[in-house]
TrEMBL record:
<dbReference type="GO" id="GO:0016787">
    <property type="term" value="F:hydrolase activity"/>
</dbReference>
<feature type="domain" description="AB hydrolase-1">
    <location>
        <begin position="21"/>
        <end position="260"/>
    </location>
</feature>
<protein>
    <submittedName>
        <fullName>Alpha/beta fold hydrolase</fullName>
    </submittedName>
</protein>
<dbReference type="InterPro" id="IPR029058">
    <property type="entry name" value="AB_hydrolase_fold"/>
</dbReference>
<dbReference type="InterPro" id="IPR000073">
    <property type="entry name" value="AB_hydrolase_1"/>
</dbReference>
<keyword id="KW-0378">Hydrolase</keyword>
<dbReference type="Pfam" id="PF00561">
    <property type="entry name" value="Abhydrolase_1"/>
</dbReference>
Length: 276
């Protein structure tokens, strides 16, 4: 069973009707629907193994835009959405990349909401800048929205050579009547990227070090071929999340759930249903 969320809060998509509650948080330029395949598999053929909530983060998907990026504000917005959707029940929270950072901040700031945590291919640290995404941002800004005649026209004009990346980025393109727009808050992301080493999206708030560690179970999933998690990240991760277990999936890159969906589904089902 799939239902749309309340448009007054963060936009959500619900999958499943019974079982433990699981919230999925996507990465930069993504949206909740990116986790739909995984959520359907985890919720089972009858939708009774888990109640999954696919969340569009602020500035993404169909959720409201903000004026300035803040990991804390993102986490607080997710917390409000989970409280509204969960009627006081705790959640297993799964976050990938930017969504993994939001999930970690959520667990540190609102531990009463988070029963257990799954962090996918990201660490609680600053990554310097959005250099890895600057090419994507330029490609999106260069697309002449006022000249587009169809989605096929947009695909033909979009410069990205990688088909998978092109499809991922162009999922943000929306048609309103005869005009086109970016669904993601591209100006906000571009402005943050222009900050260079001061990027807030790539960073990690220092004031989180003053918060108590999160004492729930944490599954830390790493792509074996991804550079996002390094060996020396473990000490910082366990400082915030002492009950962390690292699970590295060989052959997977940064988009672990796309590269190895069956392994991710099995890991999630086992972790979410395991005794505390």
């Amino acid at each position: 069973m799939t239902t749309a969320g309340d448009q007054d809060s963060l936009n959500t998509l619900s999958v499943g009707t019974a079982g433990p509650r699981i919230a999925f948080l996507h990465g930069l330029f993504g949206q909740g629907r990116n986790w739909n395949q995984i959520a359907r598999a985890v919720s089972g053929p009858e939708g009774t193994d888990a109640r999954c909530l696919l969340v569009d983060l602020p500035d993404h998907g169909r959720s409201p835009w903000s004026q300035q990026f803040s990991l804390e504000a993102y986490a607080d917005a997710v917390a409000a959405t989970l409280r509204e959707a969960g009627a006081g029940e705790p959640w297993a929270v799964v976050g990938h990349s930017l969504g993994g950072k939001v999930a970690m901040v959520l667990a540190l700031r609102h531990p009463e909401l988070v029963d257990r945590l799954v962090v996918v291919d990201i660490a609680p640290k600053g990554y310097g800048s959005l250099e890895r995404f600057e090419g994507y941002i330029r490609e999106m800004q260069a697309l002449p929205l006022g000249e587009l005649t169809s989605r096929g026209d947009a695909e033909a004009r979009f410069a990205e050579p990688d088909r998978g990346v092109k499809a991922f980025l162009l999922q943000n393109l929306r048609r309103d009547g005869s005009s086109w727009r970016w669904q993601v808050n591209l100006d906000l992301v571009a402005g943050d990227a222009a900050r260079g080493a001061g990027s807030r999206i790539a960073g990690w708030p220092d004031d989180l070090d003053a918060l108590p560690a999160y004492d729930g179970p944490v599954l830390w999933v790493a792509g074996g071929d991804s550079p996002y998690i390094q060996r020396d990240d473990a000490e910082r991760m366990r400082r915030h999340f002492p009950r962390t277990r690292l699970f590295t999936i060989k052959g997977a890159g940064h988009w672990v759930h796309t590269d190895a969906p069956e392994i991710v589904v099995t890991a999630l089902r086992r972790f979410v249903t395991a005794p505390d």
